[in-house]
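Inverse folding, one chain.
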């Protein structure tokens, strides 16, 4: 699918990679809707995208909320006049060990259900709801489409991330099965599993902690969001790609 002249929705588009994907689609002549929770940041990204070849329109929506997603998809299709591609990018993490024993007191601290659930809700239920509504609309309107799921290198199981690793691994499993279920409707699905990417999450870390983390990456650095967009572009453009995950992780092994 060519990006020029096509219509895309990027979730979590007001920050980091989502912001980058939104602006990059518009630079290449795609019309882009993006959604986020952060109204102020939505306005900023809309302003940044105002003079690009493609349209950039922001929506306030919560991907973890069914009603919000159903309304979002309807509004986006009406505003853009259709929808050809979806990037499930919105994501959060709430890290913690499953069980941690305090070295001095021996007290046990466990990963709370609310931390578990909040990550599953945004990182797994969110893409499920958005993909379901996206695919239903494409099928109803009689045209194909493409779904890009942003997973993570943590999908392999990263200590301290029971919730996040489970969500990101589940998303790759769904990428594969949605590809099979939806191929007959000419809808493709692909996933990307980035390693460390230079977004506000990393920018907020202590420099010494960040330096230690990046030592585990053979390329010894974080990715630029533009490098992850290259994989998004490939999945959108390559008509023979579906049901697979592209690892863009600088060679990091978890
Ligand atoms: N930054 C990294 O190193 C890295 C690595 C691998 C994977 N990822 C994944 O890439 C994606 C983007 O990460 P980022 O680093 O750009 O994060 P970010 O925090 O900069 O941006 C995420 C955006 O999603 C929005 N969001 C959060 N919950 C939402 C919800 N319920 N509904 C709508 N929007 C919501 C946030 O407001 C934010 O604007 C995430 O799925 C993340 O898990 C990031």
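Residues assigned per position:
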């Amino acid at each position: 699918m060519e990006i020029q002249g096509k219509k895309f929705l990027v979730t979590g588009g007001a920050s980091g990679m989502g912001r980058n994907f939104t602006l990059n689609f518009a630079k290449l002549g795609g019309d882009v809707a993006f959604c986020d929770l952060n109204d102020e940041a939505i306005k900023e990204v809309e302003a940044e995208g105002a003079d690009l070849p493609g349209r950039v329109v922001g929506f306030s929506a919560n991907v973890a909320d069914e009603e919000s997603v159903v309304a979002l998809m309807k509004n986006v299709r009406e505003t853009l006049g259709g929808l050809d591609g979806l990037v499930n990018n919105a994501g959060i993490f709430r890290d913690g060990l499953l069980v941690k024993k305090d070295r001095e007191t021996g007290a046990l601290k466990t990963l709370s259900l609310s931390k578990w659930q909040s990550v599953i809700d945004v990182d797994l239920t969110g893409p499920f709801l958005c993909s379901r509504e996206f695919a239903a609309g494409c099928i109803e309107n009689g045209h194909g489409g493409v779904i890009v799921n942003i997973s993570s290198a943590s999908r392999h199981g990263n200590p301290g991330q029971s919730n996040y690793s489970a969500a990101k691994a589940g998303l790759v499993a769904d990428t594969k099965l949605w590809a099979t279920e939806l191929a007959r409707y000419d809808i493709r699905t692909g996933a990307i599993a980035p390693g460390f990417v230079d977004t506000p999450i990393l920018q907020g870390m202590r420099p010494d902690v960040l330096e230690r983390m990046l030592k585990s990456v053979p390329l010894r650095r974080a990715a630029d969001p533009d490098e992850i967009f290259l994989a998004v572009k490939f999945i959108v453009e390559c008509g023979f790609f579906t049901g697979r995950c592209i690892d863009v992780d600088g060679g990091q092994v978890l």
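Residues 7-247 form a domain with the Rossmann fold fold (CATH 3.40.50.720). The radius of gyration is 18 Å.
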